[in-house]
Amino acid sequence: MEKPKVIVSVQGPHRERSVLLDRVREEIRKRHYSPRTEEAYVTWIRRFVQFHGFRPPEGMNEYDIEKFLSHLAVSCEVAPATQNQALGALLFLFRNILRIRLDWLDDVVRAKKPKRLPVVLTRQEVQALMSHLFGPKWIAAMLLYGARLRLMECLQLRVKDIDFGYRQITVRGGKGNRDRITVLPAAVETRLRNHLEEIRQQHEEDLENDGGYVKLPSALAGKYPGAAREWGWQWVFPSHRPYKENVTGHLYRHHLFETVLQKAIRDAAIRFRIPKRISCHTLRHSFATHSRHHHPSTRRILIRKSPVLHYIRLMKIHPIQLPFQISLMASNTR
C-alpha cells in the first residue's frame, strides 16, 4: 500500500495553512475526539515540525521523536504528563496520519508520571472559601463540591440536565466521553432555581433581539434546526455577553469560560489565606474525603469505580442529602 503524500506548509505561528494539520484535524473529528484533544494534538505536532526545521515528518524516526521529547524535558522543563501528551500526539501523527507501522513506535519510552497526593480542604476551609464567592460562581463551586463535578462538566451543563424532581444532575460527555448521573445538592437547590429563572429572562430577551442561540453537540443542529434556541438546550452558566457567528450572523452565547471560575476560587483562597495549592478540582477531592470521614460505612463504596453506585448508596442511607452538607453550607446566604 502506497503511503499518502503529506505536504507540510507552515507560514508562521499566526497564519498556518498546513495540509498536514488539516488532515490531523479531519482525522481527529472522524474519531469524535474532544475539541481539547484536537487543540492539544495540533499544537504538539506543529511544535514538533517547527523544532526539526520544517522537515517532512514521514522522513523522521524514533531518534527525532526522542530528541524532541528530551528538549521538552530538559530545556522546557515540562511535567511528565505534558511530555506524555506530546508523545501521544506524535504517535497519532505517525500511526493514523502518515500510516507508518514500525516496531520502534511501540518502543518509545514514556515519561514516568509521579504519584501525587491530592490537596484536600477541611470543612471549615470549604465554608470559608464559599463565603468569598457570590452569584453564579458560588453555585458553580457548590456543584463542584456537592455534586463532585469536574470544571468543564459543571460549566457545560445545560438546563435540561438539571432534574429538580429527582434531585439529580445528568453529566453529558464527561471524562472518557461517558454520561453519568450524580446528585443535586440540597443546599444549592433554591439558589439554582432562582439563577435559572434569571437566565430564562435573559434568554427571552435574547430571543426578542433575534438571538438566543447556543452551540449544539455533534450534528444536532442539522437534525433539530430549532433546538439551538430552545430553553432546554441553554447553558446553566452562560457568558455575560453574546457573540455574532461569522457564518450565519446569529447571536450566540457561549458558556462561562473556565478561567472565570478558576480565578474566582483562587482569589477566594488568597483572601482567606489558605496555605494550600487550591484549584477547582480540590473541591471534588474534598467532598470525597468528607463523605468518607462523616460516614465510615461508605468507605467500601467510595473505592468502587462507579460514581453512580456511590451516590445511589449515599441517597439510600441518607435520603437525598448529606447532613454535613446542610450544616456546612446552608448557613451561607450570599
User: Largest sheet, if any?
Assistant: 3 strands, antiparallel
Q: Give the topology string: H per helix, E per strand.
A: HHHHHHHHEEEHHEEHHHHH
Q: Mind telling me the CATH superfamily name of the largest domain?
A: Intergrase catalytic core
Beta-strand proportion: under 5%
Strands of the widest sheet, in order across it, are 1-2-3
N-C termini distance: 66 Å
Q: What value does the Rg take, in angstroms?
A: 23 Å
CATH class of the largest domain: Mainly Alpha
Q: Please state the average pLDDT score.
A: 82
- CATH architecture descriptor of the largest domain: Orthogonal Bundle
Describe the protein's architecture and organization.
With about 325 residues, the chain is mostly helical. It has 2 domains: about 20-105, DNA polymerase, domain 1 (Orthogonal Bundle), CATH 1.10.150.130; about 125-330, Intergrase catalytic core (hpI Integrase, Chain A, Orthogonal Bundle), CATH 1.10.443. Helices cover about 50% and strands about 5% of the residues. The protein contains 15 helices and 5 strands. The chain has helices at about 20-30, 35-50, 60-75, 80-95, 105, 125-130, 135-145, 150-155, 185-210, 220-225, 260-270, 280-295, 300, 305-315, 325-330, and strands at about 160-165, 170, 180-185, 245, 250. The protein has a 3-stranded antiparallel sheet. A two-stranded antiparallel ribbon has the order 4-5. A hairpin with a 4-residue loop joins strand 1 (about 160-165) and strand 2 (about 170). Helix 1 (about 20-30) packs antiparallel against helix 2, helix 3 (about 60-75) packs antiparallel against helix 4 (about 80-95) and helix 7 packs across helix 12.
